[in-house]
Amino acid sequence: MDEIFDYIKKAVLSISNELKFPDTSYNQSQNKTGDTQLKFDVISDEIITNTLSKCPNIKALISEEKDESLILNEEATYIVAYDPLDGSSLMDVNFAIGSIFAIYEKKAQAKCLKAAIYSIYGPRLELVICKDCVNLYRLNKENEFIFVKKLIMQEKGKINATGGTQKNWDEKHAKFIKGLFDDGYRLRYSGAMVSDMHQILCKGGGLFSYPATKNSVNGKLRAFFEVFPFAYITEKAGGKTSNGLNESLLDLEFDNIHATTPCFFGSKYEINALLKAYNER
Ligand code: AHM
Ligand code: MG
User: Fold this and answer.
1) What is the 3-state secondary structure (H, E, C) of the chain?
2) Are residues 170 and 188 in the same domain?
3) What pLDDT score does 99 carry?
4) Of 150, 182, 198, which marks where a domain is finished?
5) Residue 175 C-alpha to ligand 1 middle, in angstroms?
6) Is residue 94 domain-shared with residue 213, that is, in the same domain?
7) Ligand 1 mutation pick, 210, 230, 264, max ligand atoms within 8 A of CB
8) Which of the listed residues 37, 45, 86 should we mutate to test ligand 1's pocket, taking the one with most ligand atoms within 8 A of CB?
9) Domain range spanning residue 272?
10) 9 and 131 in one domain?
11) Which residue's C-alpha comes closest to atom 12 of ligand 1?
């Protein structure tokens, strides 16, 4: 597994270098979830595919930007699913964006997750690697990732990062979110999941949500590349996750590699409040 981490470090370093002088125009193509691809989505995808293809321990790659899985080595153990450039629609405004990786053993299902990683391309290049605990690393001048600290979620946070178009929320969700603001939670939402989750993890708590909406009944965020890796990280940091009904996003199973799901990640207090609000009659 550590070997895979090393290849991921190489890939994110290359993407970070490319991002300094990027082409922010759009391609004519769309990915499987219907998003118009930026040229840089495709470039980041190619960088990760080319770099990870050299790693002998990887059985297959599953990318948000590719319709099908790419088989590399049938004999190998690990499947790596990734979102090459999460939040790429914010590239034009120079917000922090990132790459997300999920490492599955033998089968791409949440219960087979063995590690999750994300990078943040912000003023600094940071990397969070989670196997048994959640470790934050930062790039130094020698191009090495140096351990900074362990990320831990407290019992209750102060941040509310709430996604989806509000006019399309259902009443239950709208009431729950208003209740958090009435309790003193502050809105912090950039529109890049990596940055919004990174803030909650670094500040030690809060809620990130992307609910079912009237126009997207299964939510927007993709299970294998976005939801499962962040659910794994949140729970290893001491937080909790849910789809609004269950006790953990990691209990979900999907056949379609591009499946989406409503998702909530947070401190225990906010997820327990969510379950109460969503399941009230
Ligand atoms: P992307 O992977 O195409 O960038 O889309 C995912 C992004 C997430 O980073 C973010 O949480 C969400 O889409 C924002 O969507 P919205 O603008 O609807 O709130
Ligand atoms: Mg994404």
Assistant:
1) CHHHHHHHHHHHHHHHHHCCCCCCCEEEEECCCCCEEEHHHHHHHHHHHHHHCCCCCEEEEEECCCCCCEECCCCCCEEEEEEEEECHHHHHHCCCEEEEEEEEECCCCHHHEEEEEEEEECCCEEEEEECCCEEEEEECCCCCEEEEEECCCCCCCCEEEECCCHHHCCHHHHHHHHHHHHCCCEECCCCCHHHHHHHHHHHCCCEEEECCECCECCCCCEHHHHHHHHHHHHHHCCCEEECCCCCCHHHCCCCCCCCECCEEEECHHHHHHHHHHHHCC
2) yes
3) 98
4) 150
5) 23
6) no
7) 210
8) 86
9) 159-278
10) yes
11) 191
Residues taking part in catalysis: 35, 41, 64-65, 83, 85-86, 226
Instruction: Specify the residue with its C-alpha closest to ligand 1, atom 18.
Output: 164
Query: Could you tell me the pLDDT band of residue 39, with boundaries at 50, 70 and 90?
Result: confident
pLDDT average, residue stretch 15-27: 79
Nearest residue (by CA) to ligand 1, atom 2, is: 86
Tell whether 185 and 92 lie within a shared domain.
no
Domain C-terminal end among 123, 150, 177: 150
pTM across the whole model: 0.94
Reported as a single tens digit per residue, the pLDDT across 192-217 is: 999 999 999 999 999 999 999 999 99
